[in-house]
Amino acid sequence: MIYLDNAATSFPKPKRVYDRMDQFLREEAANPGRSGHRLSVQAESQIVQARSLLAKLFNVKQAERIIFTLNCTDSLNIAIKGALKEGDHVITTYMEHNSVLRPLNALEAIGKISMTKIKPHGEGFIDLAEIKKAIKKNTKLIVVTHASNVIGVVQPIREIGKIAREAGVLFLVDAAQTAGVISIDVEKDFIDLLAFPGHKALYGPPGTGGLYVGERTKLVPWREGGTGFNSESQIHPETLPFLLEGGTPNSVGIVGLREGVEFILEEGIEKIQTHERALVQKLRSELSSIPGVKLYGANDVKRSVSPVSFTVEGIEPQEFSLILDESFHIAARAGLHCAPLMHETLGTAPQGSIRFSPGYFNTLNEIEKAAQAVKEILATAIP
Ligand SMILES: Cc1ncc(COP(=O)(O)O)c(C=O)c1O
Fold first, then answer.
1. N or C, where is the chain less crowded by C-beta within 10 Å?
2. Cβ pair 348, 21 in contact under 8 A
């Protein structure tokens, strides 16, 4: 099987992730920080270490400003619903995933917020001048996906962050497709809120994610409860990470995520990025040479990450990916990829596209095989 669906979740994970989770669950998985006994204290220290490693990865000065969540959707919901108040205006883009669009649309529908959506131009880039122009007196938040999960185009977050900071607006980055692949520095990139999944390019298991909450942000939690300390108080603590982490955490998942992040720090993000770029470049050059294939996104691989989307003449994306799976054992994802406005912009709605998303563990040889499969399907289906 050739797995080319890493944009959905990475697979496989580094071996150390499986090994450590197995060991932790069998031997160490007491409730972290809830009880005074040794096992509980040790479990808590594993979580503290995971937080510190993530802080190192994103240049976060205070590790407690990173909170653990269920996935990137959870992080985005906590950030969006926790930050916005009645009458706020939000700027976002047509590139966003439903995990940004749906919470914003829901808030707009009840009349709580207003919103401006910016369309990408050319190969899929946002025009900075349009963001600047969209800022109003009541603009509270700019939400931008770092890289599109459909076409992989990377947005200039540092420049957008600078615009937000100068205007006194909060900046939320959806790093679902970039955390672990591209270097992200919350200080230099002027990021106030960074939402990331643990289970994609950070190599943690499904059910893990995180949110960095910067000093300029005060989020209202949607969940209050036990935190393992100050039990005499009936009021939820205001200190991070506890403010946003009520209840027993997914300690087994977080321990796996910790191993994934350590793997990245040991490999080096540049090495990971270089390999992924080589895969994307090969994929783009192979696919663009096949007659009948229409490729989307940026040709400059320095400005894109892994997801590569294409359509083929005469075959629906869903049918095409079914053939890839059944006849060639290639796992791809077809359809709208939870990003309906992106497909509307590309002119690929409602069928969407076929998406190959190679990851660090894919090889150039697998990319060649995938391109060969595309050629063979086209040759058989369209004689
Ligand atoms: C750009 C983007 N944002 C958010 C998400 C949601 O991530 P999760 O599946 O971790 O909830 C995804 C998932 O694919 C994504 O690609």
1. C
2. no
CA atoms within 13 A on the CB side of 2: 25
Which tokens belong to 371?
Answer: 């391109």
Task: Please say whether the beta carbons of 347 and 369 come within 8 A.
Answer: no
Query: What confidence tens digit (pLDDT) does each residue in 343-373 have?
Result: 999 999 999 999 999 999 999 999 999 999 9
Q: Is 197 in the pocket of ligand 1 (CB under 6 A)?
A: yes
Q: Is the CB of 176 under 6 A from ligand 1?
A: yes
Task: Identify residue 35 by its one-letter amino acid code.
Answer: S
Give the tokens for residue 340. 């309906």
CA of 219 to the centre of ligand 1 (A): 21
- pLDDT digit string, tens, across residues 258-300: 999 999 999 999 999 999 999 999 999 999 999 999 999 999 9
Q: Which residues of the chain have pLDDT under 70?
A: 382-383
Tokens 């090969």 appear where? 282
Coil vs helix vs strand at 34: coil
Residue 237 structure tokens: 């603590």
Catalytic residues: 338
79 CA to centre of own chain = 14
Place of tokens 């450590």: 20
Angle at alpha carbon of residue 274, lines to 270 and 275, rounded to 5°: 120
